[in-house]
Amino acid sequence: MLVLSNAVLVVAIGCQALDCLHRPSRTRTNQTVTSRAINRKQRLREIRWATFERSIHAVDELLNHEVREAHEEEMGTTMRHWSELPARTVAITESRRLIFNCQKR
Hints:
Layout: E1 2-5, E2 8-13, E3 16-17, H1 40-75, E4 87-92, E5 97-101
Antiparallel strand pairs: 1-2, 2-3, 4-5
């Protein structure tokens, strides 16, 4: 006869009950924190870094837009895609961006 009681399986044969088949090896209070867990300080650093990266990307997009508009005014046309522009950003130093003209004259 099988009896389920308190999520523990007990096997009983006739009137005699056998020992419990499942016993927890340790209580929850003794469990250690795994090395993969992220502490609060590290999580805040990651959030700040992600915010910083997004702001840098926004500045880059703004610069690309300004360069494209200036070029369109100079050429007197409107180009649909950034890839059609002759100007390319090649290197980024601390606060300056080096832009050169790919067109051969």
